[in-house]
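ok trying again, last paste got cut off:
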Amino acid sequence: MSSLVTDVDSMKIDCNCIACFGSMKYWMDWNNYSIYRCVDCQLEATIPLPTHAALYEYYQGADGRDMAKSERWFERVDRAVVYYFERFAEITSEAAPRRMLDLGGGVGYWSAVAQARGVDVCLMDFADDALQFARERLGVKWTVAGDIGRSSDYFSEAEFDFVLARHTIEHMIDPEAYLAHVAKVIRPGGVLELETPNVLGREQFAHPATVLSNYRVIRRSNPQMGAAKARAIAWNKALSGVNPPKHLWGFTLKSLRLMLERQGFDIREVRTEPAGHPELDPLYYDVHGLRTRRGFGVPYYFWERAATAMLRGRGQNLALLAVRR
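nice, full thing came through this time. structure:
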């Protein structure tokens, strides 16, 4: 890992990008952290990074434990799982994965659905309470509590045919090490589905409430910054970009391609789709309860649906399918 993590402090000095090794420049402060941007691949980074202990504490208390309410929600996840398995079959010429790792899968909805389709699934996550929910409420048979950034410490080499890594890499202290561990547990010819927020997406224009919230954080964290500059940054900050201690990194396709290729993966498919996409983000509207928002004068749900429809290909979800060489 580069000196980005340990050698940079409040002095706001330039540092090296972990993806392309180019120069990273200070962008702004966010709460008690600073955000830097790479001038070459446009990766965004949190400096300083939180400790492992702080992240472990942050992720205890899993989101979504009250979600097992409706068969409709499981049907939506099933549609997404079917899509992943169909793409797996096209890439590998095999009917379905034999063994799947759901890495950082939280309370286990994707694991439960894949298990119901006959796949041997392991759900791995930081949060003990999330895994307990998955076992007791959803019937997930195989769970592992541990550091998802070091998955090969817990499994045999080439143990899995398919690794599902939805919105995890942006949470890692060391994304390159995370991918190196994934490369060890997936067999040659196996498929990795990697999904993360797209920091070049423009979907924030469909979410004025999020832009306003970001503006307030930026102004509070950067008292020396003028209001006009803060507004401009808020409008140009990706919808689901870096917001430590949650999202520590913000990736672009170029940055991910460089890192994946170094770890022995070839990208076969790239999609950038908006929030609520039926295959990449099937529970978005349910989780956020998006029906109306007071003060906008129109039903926010319909505004958001219409706006994101115009942002196809520039949405917040950057989803890659990659094959292990």
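cool. The radius of gyration is 19 Å. The mean pLDDT is 87.
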